[in-house]
Amino acid sequence: MPRIFTTLLLVLFTLTVSAQAWELGVTGGAAGYMGDLNTRNMFQVSGGAFGGFVKKNFNPYLSLKAGFMHGVIAAADSNSKFEQNRLRNLSFSTTLNELSLMAEFNFLQYRPGIDKHAFSPYVFVGIGGVAFNPRARVDKHSDWVDLRPLMTEGQVKPYSNVAVTIPYGVGLKYNFTHSLSLIADVGYRSAKTDYLDDVSGNYKVPTPVRNEDLAIAKYFADRRLSSDKGSLGSQRGDGRSFDTYMFFSLSVSFTFVSDKCYFSY
């Protein structure tokens, strides 16, 4: 495995330095989420994020980027300003590992390494995949428990922990010195799953993978504080089909510019 990994890195490096107007970049920032435990605040940040990307610039307006992002999202009903959510009393946290392929369109002519202090707003859209694993705990002093195998909403089988995503967003690019650029963007991901937070439908009897987990599954399936705790069939989620997550990021990229690249025409 180390030899394969090293070989892939060498191939990528060879393609990058021999190509014209390729970019390599690193990213850092914050992650957020909208779903059953946060239905209204599209800018709510709940964890950190970092990643990297390789990008091919076809002309001063159009690029194609392959990237990886790792982030953490979380939410808790106990922090909600709505009483009905506080009474529901659910919570979760999950890591996100995303691979994506996105097209970027610059509104202004952007030629790093040729035009000093080049600047442009841009938009992007693409497709990707994300791996996730929602967890929860009784309190801040207890251990984290994986929710997926507990099947808290009475599923026939555990939902997939991998989902297709549709990334889209806006950003700003600024080439501050020759081949180095600073990039800020806000990107949302429509995930084709409603279980990033382990919440989707109605209250049901949980069906954990292991029978010995039934007691803990019942606890995490129904944490209501109100007097109707235990009633089945009532709404548990927000009724929407999919969850959304987002990255607010700042990146630094290095553009490999040669004398024969498209920037020269």
Structural class: mainly beta
The biggest beta sheet is recorded as: 8 strands, antiparallel, barrel
Strand order of the largest sheet: 1-2-3-4-5-8-9-10
Distance between the termini: 43 Å
Number of strands: 10
Q: Which sequence of SSEs, written as H and E, runs from N to C?
A: HEEEHEEEEEEHE
Helical stretch count? 3
**What is the molecular shape?**
elongated
Radius of gyration: 22 Å
pLDDT averaged over residues: 89
Strand content: 35-45%
Specify the helix fraction band: 10-25%
**Which segments are poorly predicted (pLDDT under 50) over 5 or more consecutive residues?**
15-19
What does this structure look like?
By secondary structure, the chain is mainly beta. 12% of the residues lie in helices and 44% in strands. The strands form two sheets. An eight-stranded antiparallel β-barrel has the order 1-2-3-4-5-8-9-10. It starts with a helix and ends in a 9-residue tail after the last strand. The model is unreliable at 15-19 (pLDDT under 50).
Characteristic terms for this protein:
8-stranded antiparallel beta barrel; two-stranded antiparallel sheet; mainly beta; 3 helices; 265 residues
